[in-house]
Amino acid sequence: MDPINVTADAEEFTCNAYLVPGEVTTLVDAGTMPGVEDVIAEHVEALDRVVVTHQHTDHVAELDAVLDAFDAELYAYAEHPRRDVELVDGSTVEIGDETCEVVYTPGHASDHVSFVGDERLYSGDVVVYNDGAFEDGSFGRTDMAGQSRERLIESLEDLLDHLPEGVSGMYAGHGDVYRPSENEDGVREVIERALERAKRRQPKYPE
């Protein structure tokens, strides 16, 4: 079953939170939408774990509500009061029915990780398909305190190095899911466009 964006109907600013049913039913990020736990319950009876790409507020505001509702385990790279399992660069984590590699991808956030499977990439905010700044290949902002364009560029390069050829879907923290059709570029080409734009070092959101 394809991942379900359980924050798709949010009325407030939020990340995309993906419910991935399967052998290990998983939520990728929790978002900010009040009642997201009720949306999850409409699709599954149990939630095994929540994995977070990073701990910016738009990705974790409703984390406690989800953990309380399902007694799920929390997997995170950075410390968190409720973390059960530390995510480590180069390790693997089961998401639904897929084994994903944890790839450390800072720049937008110091604790940012992406989850790379044979079929799906959960990219958080390091790379997105569209976000209002760029279409068909964009990247997380790097103009705020603690962020680094140079480190984000390295992260995009690392992500490309770890990306299997068969990846057929990119599930980003914002914007649309990218699942290329037969005549469209693959996920790798989208990331390469994002990398090229990031390397221009121009402000993503000019004043």
UniProtKB/TrEMBL annotation:
Per the database record, which ranges form the Metallo-beta-lactamase domain?
Answer: 14-174
* Pfam families per UniProt: Lactamase_B (PF00753)
Q: Which cofactor does it need?
A: Zn(2+)
Q: State any single GO MF term.
A: metal ion binding
**Any idea which UniProt keywords this protein has?**
Hydrolase, Metal-binding, Zinc
State the InterPro entries in the record.
MBL_Glyoxalase_II, Metallo-B-lactamas, RibonucZ/Hydroxyglut_hydro
EC number(s) given by UniProt: 3.-.-.-
The molecule here is called MBL fold metallo-hydrolase
What is the scientific name of the source organism? Halopenitus salinus
